[in-house]
């Protein structure tokens, strides 16, 4: 006997922050919505990424800040209380239970189906539960793929037997390895190297490229590498891993490096990129390639599927792999789904329109919670020049800002703004230094709002704060 099919206006695959926001916006538009999740409601960010990593890093950064202040330095000279750090992290992730998130879905009237979802043709989804039972769903309006991404691992022989850490293990472990090798030089690599070095690991960072955080301004990676090295970590650039081996289940990992050198560690973290979680969701039933990133328009509607019913939101579309950008896309997509369901003939898809995720290309903000902190939005100078823009780059030493001195002795930092000379506004801003994360939204407003520099001059920063760097940058620009 064939299972009954339930019909909804919208089916959302994946109940992470992105899927939750799509569901929230479609329900607000009056559309019946069901969300499908195979793991925990709340997704990667809530349990294995943003939230636990920042919970681990906050005591590390607070101690680093305290050590810069005479009168407080002596009070924080000892090691971190690791059990307390892990305990606070566990509370922040609700001990890996999703009751609170499920209650929120109930409160907004979104149904939840647990299990693995696969497309079964246009607007059709089959969900297989843990007990093997199938649940058949049909969408009247749209299906939104919000399944996120997984850590990408290199194709090294025997890697699975080594049981490497990925971002999941690095954010959820409660035992400090004596020696930790971190393979990669991006955000996950630098943040987790910062955290685990402070928790007591002997950390070695192995970077294939020439420096850390290479997608950002060059001075970013230089300052972060210097700080990691001073804290006791080793940062080795131009280094590739060609082999891994763990001879016994509880024994050390041996990494073979290009050139034949061997490095021994108790655990190895591979932070070498992300891959879309689209390999087993039935893409082939609608003419798409399984395991591929999904190409979308600015309203996050999949471009290669007839009928305009399939959306891909968040990591799966590869536009900007950050939780806040995925949630932004979700608000855009939810509004677009609602408008199309209501028969709106023309959506606002011009740049900065209500149904266009313009910020994904023009004003993506990001904070890297290392010591020093990194905050950036928009284009780097190199990216702007490669894009054919006529720009002027303005740099300023953050240590010269009066508010920086309040953060303690030996403040190191740098600020850069990239000015589009033809249009007279900012297209990129980068800050590095303690406390700069809280500067970022002002930069994002300036970039997304295309605020003319003549008007920005009248946005007076309070004294004495590090936000006074805005005045110093503008003074330097004006000459």
How would you sum up this structure, described in words?
The protein is of the alpha/beta class. It folds into three domains: 5-42 and 98-150 and 276-359, FAD/NAD(P)-binding domain (3-Layer(bba) Sandwich), CATH 3.50.50.60; 159-272, 3-Layer(bba) Sandwich (FAD/NAD(P)-binding domain); 372-478, FAD/NAD-linked reductase, C-terminal dimerisation domain (Enolase-like, domain 1), CATH 3.30.390. It contains 16 helices and 21 strands. The strands form five sheets. Strands 1, 2, 3, 4, 5, 6 and 16 form a seven-stranded mixed sheet that branches. It has a five-stranded antiparallel sheet with strand order 17-18-21-20-19, with helices on both faces. A four-stranded parallel sheet has the order 10-9-8-14. β20 and β21 (425-432) form a beta hairpin. α1 packs parallel to α10 and α3 crosses α4.
List the helices and strands and how they pair.
Layout: E1 5-13, H1 17-28, E2 33-37, H2 43-48, H3 50-67, H4 82-92, H5 99-107, E3 111-114, E4 116-119, E5 124-128, E6 134-145, E7 149-151, H6 159-162, H7 167-172, E8 179-183, H8 187-199, E9 202-206, H9 218-231, E10 234-236, E11 241-245, E12 253-257, E13 262-265, E14 267-270, E15 274-276, E16 310-312, H10 323-341, H11 359-362, E17 365-368, E18 374-378, H12 381-386, E19 391-397, H13 402-405, E20 414-420, E21 425-432, H14 440-448, H15 453-456, H16 469-478
Parallel strand pairs: 1-2, 1-6, 2-3, 6-16, 8-9, 8-14, 9-10
Antiparallel strand pairs: 4-5, 5-6, 7-15, 11-12, 12-13, 17-18, 18-21, 19-20, 20-21
Helix pairs in contact: 1-10, 3-4, 3-8
């Amino acid at each position: 006997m064939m299972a009954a099919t339930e019909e909804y206006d919208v089916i959302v695959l994946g109940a992470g922050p992105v899927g939750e926001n799509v569901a929230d916006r479609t329900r607000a538009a009056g559309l019946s919505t069901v969300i499908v999740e195979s793991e925990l409601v709340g997704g990667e960010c809530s349990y294995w990424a943003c939230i636990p990593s920042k919970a681990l890093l906050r005591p590390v950064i607070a101690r680093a800040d305290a050590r810069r202040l005479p009168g407080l330095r002596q009070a924080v000279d000892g090691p971190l209380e690791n059990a307390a750090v892990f305990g606070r992290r566990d509370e922040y992730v609700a001990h890996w239970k999703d009751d609170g998130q499920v209650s929120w879905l109930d409160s907004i009237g979104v149904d939840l189906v647990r299990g693995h979802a696969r497309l079964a043709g246009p607007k059709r989804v089959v969900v297989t539960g843990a007990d093997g039972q199938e649940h058949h769903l049909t969408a009247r309006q749209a299906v939104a793929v919000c399944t996120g991404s997984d850590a990408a691992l290199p194709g090294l022989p025997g890697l699975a037997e080594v049981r490497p850490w990925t971002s999941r293990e690095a954010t959820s472990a409660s035992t400090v390895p004596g020696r930790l090798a971190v393979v990669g030089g991006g955000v996950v690599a630098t943040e987790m190297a910062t955290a685990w070095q402070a928790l007591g690991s002997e950390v070695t960072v192995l970077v294939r490229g020439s420096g850390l955080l290479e997608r950002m301004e060059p001075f970013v990676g230089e300052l972060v590498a210097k700080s990691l090295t001073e804290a006791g970590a080793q940062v080795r650039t131009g280094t590739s891993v060609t082999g891994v081996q763990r001879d016994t289940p509880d024994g050390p990992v041996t990494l073979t490096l290009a050139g034949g050198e061997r490095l021994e560690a108790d655990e190895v973290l591979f932070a070498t990129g992300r891959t879309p979680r689209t390999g087993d969701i039935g893409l082939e039933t609608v003419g798409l390639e399984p395991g591929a990133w999904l190409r979308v328009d600015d309203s996050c509607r999949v471009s290669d599927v007839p009928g305009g019913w399939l959306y891909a939101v968040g990591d799966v579309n590869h536009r900007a792999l950050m939780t806040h950008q995925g949630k932004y896309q979700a608000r855009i997509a939810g509004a677009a789904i609602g408008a199309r369901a209501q028969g709106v003939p023309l959506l606002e898809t011009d740049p900065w329109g209500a149904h266009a995720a313009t910020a994904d290309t023009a004003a993506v903000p990001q904070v890297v919670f290392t010591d020093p902190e990194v905050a950036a939005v928009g284009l780097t100078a190199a990216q702007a020049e490669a894009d054919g823009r006529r720009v002027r780059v303005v740099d300023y030493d953050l240590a010269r800002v009066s508010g920086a001195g309040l953060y303690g002795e030996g403040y190191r930092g740098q600020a850069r703004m990239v000015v589009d000379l033809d249009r007279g506004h900012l297209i990129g801003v980068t800050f590095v230094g303690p406390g700069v994360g809280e500067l970022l939204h002002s930069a994002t407003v300036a970039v997304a709002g295309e605020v003319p520099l003549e008007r920005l001059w009248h946005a007076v920063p309070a004294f004495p704060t590090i936000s006074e760097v805005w005045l110093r940058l503008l003074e330097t620009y004006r000459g």
